Amino acid sequence: MSSGFRWNLADSGEPGLFGMDELLVPEIGTGRMSGLEFLHVTAKQILNHVPSGSRAPSNWTINVYRGCSHGCSYCFARPTHEYLGLNIGEDFDSKIVVKINAVDKLRAELADPRWQGEAVAMGTNTDPYQRAEAKYKLTRGVLEALTEHANPFSILTKSPLVTRDLDVLIEAAKATDVSVNFSIATLDERVWRATEPGSPNPRRRIDAMAQLSAAGIKTGALMAPILPGMSDGAAQLREVVAAIAGAGGRLLGIAPLHLRPGLREHFLTWLSTHDPELHADYLRRYANTSYAPERYLEQLYARAGLPRRSRNPPTR
Ligand code: SF4
Question: For a Cys staple, 314 with which of 18, 55, 93, 174, CB 3.0–4.6 Å?
Fold first, then answer.
């Protein structure tokens, strides 16, 4: 069991999600899951209402895991681990909270007469197809439950594991509005390995997108976050745009790195060892702000050979 583990309900951002008595016996990953620790919990609520003003694609989200083994250095969900008394670095990558009752709980919530059948977004705070999903299949169970209720949903992922559930997705798409989107900031292997070390190769995401598209599933990609000096070259951007189009996907938008408080310190510390020169550049770029300037976003669209979108897409 993790030393110093605690649950802080007041600040969790997902009120009533867990209680002290709901943390069950943790499990250490073995074999393909080695290096991971799974913290089993029974969640009090699975459908999570998004606070107003959020940039999530729906008013409701489902995150059956917390923490993410894809381990992206820029992940803005990292600070959510601090609410649990875990750190936002290695703990976020390797101590994965698993809501083991997610599917049963969701079925009960969907059957509640007060539920209005609004669209649900998955992948807003953690990847629903991270490594843990191969073991627990909770996301698959969630898709089945949503399909039974013809409840619309969208998925954002970095993993081709989503194609495992193509049979469910095809049934869901017959009954309701379904979309499966991929997060693909770059196809540059060097940048991918450095910044998303636990995630599948982005070219496999493109292949997965093509497979889904060929099966008639609405699919697309979000190019985010684009990292200044790493993944923002014209050739890099155009390669991704062309690959998405070639796979039959829709480009949802381009968004540069957003260094929100909490993540900022983690990312800049990582960058200081990865590339000290670039670190100095980022300290200047993000000196007094969490956001890249609007001018930079316009440059990204121009470099990618695209007309500027009027609104930034949501990012993870
Ligand atoms: S950005 Fe997405 S895929 Fe990467 S660690 Fe965060 S939740 Fe996981």
Answer: 55
Which residue is closest in CA terms to ligand 1's atom 6? 75
DSSP string, 256-313: E----TTHHHHHHHHHHHH-HHHHHHHHHHTSS-SS--HHHHHHHHHHTT-PPPSSPP
> For the segment 248-293, what is each residue's pLDDT rounded down to a tens digit?
999 999 999 999 998 999 999 999 999 999 999 999 999 999 999 9
Q: How many domains in the chain? A: 1
The predicted-structure confidence for 81-126, as pLDDT tens digits, reads as follows 988 889 999 999 999 999 999 999 999 999 999 999 999 999 999 9
State the distance from the centre of ligand 1 to the C-alpha of 73, rounded, in angstroms. Answer: 9
Alpha carbon nearest to ligand 1 atom 7, residue: 126
CATH classification at residue 191? 3.20.20.70
